[in-house]
Amino acid sequence: MLQRRSGTQTSEVFQLSLEVAVIQRIVIASTLALAATSAAWAQSSVTLYGRLNVTAESIDANGKKTKQLVDNSSRLGFKGTEDMGGGLKANFILEHRFGADTGLPSPAGFWAGQSEVNLSGGFGTVRLGRFSSDAYFATADWIGFHNHDTGNSSDGLYAYLGRDTNKVAYLTPELVKGLTAGASISAGEGGGRLRNYDGSINYAAGPLTLGFGYESANGSKQFAVRAAYEMGAAVLGAYIQSHDDASLGKRLIWRVAGMYTLGASELHATLGQAGEYDKQPNSDARQFVLAYNYNLSKRTKVYTFYSKVTDEKGVSAYGGDFSSLAFGVRHNF
Q1: Per-residue pLDDT averaged across 286-301, rounded?
Q2: Residues 6+ apart with CB under 8 A from 296
């Protein structure tokens, strides 16, 4: 009996040792898995960002005068990146546009600002999703010094032909010092929509920057060139655009902009003109903007502006004669 008990005890001890060993292996495996997961997390990041930008305005639109609270492209976004090693990164951005004055989402959709996924590395960047035309960013937006070219002080004359949705794009790495380029195509996807194309070239050399943009859509096309020069506290910029509309013919558009900073203050002035279309007499339009910004901090500014558009045929983005006197607050986070 004693011998049998000893055998039983030995068996129980062996079984217990086996269970302990299994538990130890599970703990070790779990620890290694957690460590591996933590290492992967350490190579990923997600950032929340946004902007609230609202103005109180006195507006005269084709003789109709109103007092309005106007949203200026307020946004809430998420952007992230995963470093996969060897210079290869996966990136995403999801940007929600909404009216801060109403709380309502943009009519263009929840992620109306930007929604894309891309891969970047030494080869450049391949992008898929919804995003604005690089031709616009290379030219008109670049000299939109005041208020990021948004709201009722934004450029209402530039011919924007690009379609922001269903896009595939490629951005080069730096080809030579200061020189980059990009191109995109918007898929037709049936429904009678044609493919849209846009391309851009940007060059920076010290205080001088240059840009070129091209767009083609539904039989219309445009190309523009831009230059900007920084002289200490002053920055001057201009673009000239050739627009060929499939129905109305050709016209020439130009805009000049200047900014002068003095401490926390910024002074802005812009002047632009769109010439007549070949096939529509008296279709020229002009725009003048004068603005003052005061930076309360790196994130917050208050500002005021006066914007006036003369547009007899309604060819500008404002759809006719328009003026606005505004006071606003902008906060970035």
Answers
A1: 98
A2: 264, 302
127 is written with which tokens? 């992008």
pLDDT tens-digit series, residues 50-93: 999 999 999 999 999 999 999 999 999 999 999 999 999 999 99
Question: What is the Cα gyration radius of the chain?
Answer: 28
Identify the pLDDT of residue 126. Answer: 98
Kindly indicate the confidence band of residue 7, based on its pLDDT and cuts at 50, 70 and 90: very low
* HEC assignment per residue over the chain: CHHHHHHHHHHHHHHHHHHHHHHHHHHHHHHHHHHHHHHHHHCEEEEEEEEEEEEEEEEEECCEEEEEEEECCCEEEEEEEEECCCCCEEEEEEEEEECCCCCCECCCCCCCCEEEEEEEECCEEEEEEECCCHHHHHCCHHHCCHHHHCHHHCCCCCCCCCCCCCEEEEECCCCECCEEEEEEEECCCCCCCCCEEEEEEEEEECCEEEEEEEEEECCEEEEEEEEEEEECCEEEEEEEEEEEECCCEEEEEEEEEEEEEECCEEEEEEEEEECCECCECCCCEEEEEEEEEEECCCCEEEEEEEEEEEECCCCCCCCCCEEEEEEEEEEEC
**Chain CA centroid to CA 193, Å:** 24
236 exposed, middle or buried (CB, 10 Å; 0-12, 13-18, 19+)?
middle
Cα 20 to Cα 8, 9, 99, 161, distances in angstroms: 18, 16, 61, 70
